[in-house]
Design brief:
It contains eight helices and four strands, in the order βαβαββαααααα. By secondary structure, the chain is mainly alpha-helical. It has a four-stranded mixed beta sheet with strand order 2-1-3-4, covered by helices on one side. Bound molecules: glutathione.
């Protein structure tokens, strides 16, 4: 199998959690045209006409887009070890946390993703504070549902950890360091405890390191581009 993905995107990160936890042999391919790249997406659009990462391509060439659908496919095709809680309530909470990341946390970050790609002339304190406030509000909803035993749900590593961990790297590290906003975690005790604990899980620690390195790479690329284009 092949996974077309980028390390800076939070969506493929949840797929890599399953790949690492299940020990699957998957070739990782980083297609052109994402993040600060000025390249075109080229033939990647033939694999995924939606033009987003990730896409899983099976050995017979069939392609599956959308991170959550890929995760469910990998669970069904390679059930052991399971990254889904055994009981329906636990599974519902896992899906709820993942969905909250997709619908509320990422959506709240979109204005900041957009600002980060624009000249600092557009970085008004009002725009930054409004967007950071929305991110903090969405994290507050995660606080209501996050597990209190070191994992997002069910006391064990699950798909929900793969959804939350990259969002926290962005919300707790990338946004405050780039935009000078406050770290939202001190006001969210359950999410703070979760963030401290989950970094001791070896698979999540690997995902966090990959995300940090990739974000630093994208930031350096964006800075170099801004310098050559006059800011
Ligand atoms: N719902 C999709 C979202 C994937 C997504 O939006 N990926 C972003 C990267 S963060 C992307 O590919 N954006 C298009 C682009 O950067 O051109 C999923 O879960 O896979």
């Amino acid at each position: 199998m092949k996974l077309y993905q980028t390390y800076a995107s939070p969506f493929p990160t949840r797929v890599r959690l399953l790949i690492y936890a299940k020990g699957l042999e998957v070739e990782i391919i980083e297609p052109p045209g994402f993040h600060a790249s000025t390249e075109a997406k080229g033939d990647y659009l033939k694999i995924n006409p939606i033009g987003r990462v990730p896409t899983l391509v099976l050995d017979d060439g069939r392609a599956i887009p959308e991170s959550e659908v890929i995760c469910e496919y990998l669970e069904d095709a390679f059930p052991e070890p399971s990254l889904r809680p055994a009981d329906p309530w636990g599974r519902a909470r896992m899906r709820l946390l993942s969905r909250m990341c997709d619908f509320y946390v990422v959506m709240a970050m979109v204005p900041l993703f957009n600002l980060s790609g624009r000249s600092r002339r557009h970085w008004t304190p009002e725009a930054i504070e409004a967007a950071a406030g929305k991110v903090a509000e969405a994290l507050g909803w995660l606080e209501d549902y996050i597990g209190e035993d070191g994992f997002a749900v069910g006391g064990a590593l699950s798909q929900a950890d793969g959804a939350i961990v990259p969002q926290l790297v962005l919300a707790v590290e990338w946004i405050p360091s780039l935009f000078g906003t406050l770290d939202p975690l001190p006001r969210l005790p359950k999410l703070s405890a979760y963030w401290r604990a989950i970094q001791t899980d070896s698979i999540c620690a690997r995902l966090i390191g990959e995300t940090r390195d990739a974000i630093a790479g994208v930031a350096a690329q964006a800075k170099a581009q801004a310098a050559t284009s006059g800011g």
